[in-house]
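To start, one record:
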Amino acid sequence: MIKKIIGYAIILISGLIAQVSLLALGLFLFYGSFELIHLGTGTAGSLFFDALLSAVFFAQHSGMMRNRFRRWLERSLEKEFHGAVFTIASGMVLLMVLIFWQKTPVILFSAQEMMRWLLRGLYFLTLAGFAWGASSLQPFDPMGLTPIVNRLRAKAPAPGQLSIRGPYRYVRHPLYLFTIVMIWSCPDITADRLGFNILWTVWIFVGAHLEERDLVSTFGDAYRDYQQKIPMLVPSSIRPIL
């Protein structure tokens, strides 16, 4: 009984933190910095501090996603809880980044009139892209909660398989592509936002390459064949390749 209570508590905490952090990130990308905490570090100091915050998130997120870390974690934590722990840690670190992010005052670029509306429309178009990508992944478990639910219900996990549907017929990482487009759809670019856009875009490219190694390790020749046919991030055709 106690184990069930703990399991459902972890599900609740993980789901809450994930939703709050993702909503905060969406608002940050749309409006810019929340300006909740002012450290008075000046432009150079603010840019350095923001880069440090980004580096902390990159290290936590990418590090915990690697198979090597997961194998290490299995020594002290049952495998079913790994996804939820990753979600909780990522959500908390992401919220820390957004809360402490320092905004710089000078606007380097500001889109006006039609261009501004186009960029805003592009932002919402990427939200539709995310929904498309998520619906193409079955089962879709971004919070890593399915293993816990299966355990609580004494249900055997479904075997993992490589399924290629929807936007995955155009690029191997459509959700990363939509994230990059969303990052650059902001019409007002300050120095801190330019730094954010560059750092996080580079991190997504690096993270995609690191994830490819794990996917090859998991799916073997089936994923290698997929790699040969489908580009990683930039579509090569307006028609689905597979």
The first strand starts at residue 107 and ends at 110.
